Amino acid sequence: MSKRDNLYLVGLMGAGKTTVGRLLAKHYGCTFYDSDHEIEARTGVKIPVIFEIEGEAGFRRREEAVIAELTTLSGIVLATGGGAVLSPANREHLRTNGLVIYLRGSPEQLCERTRNDRNRPLLQTGNPLAKLRELYQQRDPIYRELADVTVDTARQSVAGMTRVLYGKLDLLKGEATSFDPAG
Fold it and tell me: First vs last Cα of the chain: how many Å apart?
């Protein structure tokens, strides 16, 4: 399997990984997966329930297993959970088996996008913005180190982000003739 067969989206919650991932999959004729949705489908419960019963560590174990499995596939676009990059094993799977795209948004922007979303256990706190700032400070260096491509989501529409991504991916395609997300 070529490193260029798959596209993996990373970034904090609310960055647009699922939305942009679906568009990339459609554009390139790939199958789309969302690691959080896969976990929910396999367990039959929502992510907050897993956090409540198993804690974050239990959820991360499930996430690691799903990512290990999905990264063996070819011709996919995968939207990962925001904390997936905390696992060295996940980082290795992503780095080795595809192109990693970091959708980078400011904590303030992401807080605005997620303010009414109750399906994000880490933000069910008295100060979600402070939590997002903490997560950004912790994870941004990891995302940047892992990413082959970074797109700033600030003040960009989804259409604008995807246009930027298509351009960047087309440039990579020119540099690496093996790039073919559709397999």
Answer: 9
